[in-house]
Amino acid sequence: MRPYELSLTAAADAIRARRLSPVELVDSVLDRIAQVDPGLGAYVTVTAERARQAAREAEREAAAGRFRGPLHGIPMGLKDLIDVAGVATTASSRVRADHRADADSTVAARLAAAGAVLVGKTHTHEFAYGLTTPQTHNAWDRGRVAGGSSGGSAVAVAAGAATFALGTDTGGSIRVPAALNGVVGLKPTYGLVPRHGVTSLAWSLDHVGPVTRTVEDAALVLSALAGHDPRDPASLSVPAADYRPSPGTSLAGLRVGVPRNHYFDRVDPQVEAAVRRAVERLESLGARLVEVEIPMTRYIQATQWGLMVPEATAYHERTLRAVPDLYAADVRVLLEAGALMPAADYLRAQRSRTLMRRAWARLLDEVDAIAAPTVPVAAVPAGQESITWPDGTAESVSDAYVRLSAPANITGIPSLSVPVGRDAAGMPVGMQLIGRPLGEAVLLRIGHAYEQTEPARELAAA
């Protein structure tokens, strides 16, 4: 197995055992980027020389017996909303073409302190305002969408062009591309991972989280990221934790909710079949399945857009007036629409969110987690704008992809997407595990247990 093919956990074990040097690993990943990224478009910027220098330093520390932890010498990509001192943060937009970050974001600083090595900044749908990342191609089929907005991060990890990556998630932007590219994506509890130094889409919905090859890898990254930062007003004061799941596959004693509404409505039959098979696997591992009713489903879309659109417009108010022509047409339309939204509609969305949080809290008193599809359909062909369901309902691709992920953003609860199969075209399918606030450990336990019963996943040939 070539170094770039290793999971984070396997690479960390090899580095600590001195079977692999950080220099070998970083060089292997950089070679892989050079090989596949011209056809995939996962990266905005590749920081090759910086990465090699950091890898040499990590190797010197390893030779001296100084290991910073499991991320020591591990190559990572960061979504290009995340500031790294001296590196451009373009948000994949012409608006930010000349921007250079003066200081590290909290998450970049924490990962660097843990020994991770930046190999580049990954593409996002412009300013994270979309669900396809049009400049990036799916790792399994270049003719299909990567998903968004963290499409570059998911594609890089799926193709072996990063051992792990960070994305952001405002309405599904970590989980959607993770599901469409067959990797793991975690949206943590709102406020668990600080957002200082991360370009915002919508303040009250934004989350930062890992994209990885395995659930255990996601746990390792979350352990390095989580913790209070007073520079983020939403940051939670929680003690440091090791999120790595315990060995073993027993889920005895856990109650897993299976929705009878919303999450399996208007879902591709192949996606539904793959997810239901995975849910049955959880039951075979000892989990007790409980049918649940998802609350307030008719208000989900209006609440998500009612919060996100005006908050995004407020963030972009100055540049939208100064340089409107520098925005892509799809993003500009959304930003201009936000300027027309009455304050009363935003307040109604906030009230709806409050009621939804209470209703979900009651629901999650009944179960330890909910298992459902991450997205209703696998990656669609690039350029496809809508989906027509068997009942004749037409839905835009963006609305379809955000529909099942939005509740966790509105309520701020954690959600983990895990690959659970492929459709007839060979495109990945994801299962979403949704839990209580600060319930990441339970979701990671369930996802890890499921993963241990499946064959090791291969990288995309890209």
Automatic annotation (TrEMBL):
Fetch the PROSITE patterns from UniProt. Answer: AMIDASES
Record's InterPro entries? Amidase (IPR000120), Amidase_CS (IPR020556), Amidase_dom (IPR023631), AS_sf (IPR036928)
All copies of the Amidase domain together span 24-444
Extract the PANTHER family matched here: AMIDASE AMID-RELATED, TRANSAMIDASE
Q: Please give the name of this protein.
A: Amidase
This protein's species is Actinomadura miaoliensis
Identify the taxonomic lineage of the organism of origin. Bacteria, Bacillati, Actinomycetota, Actinomycetes, Streptosporangiales
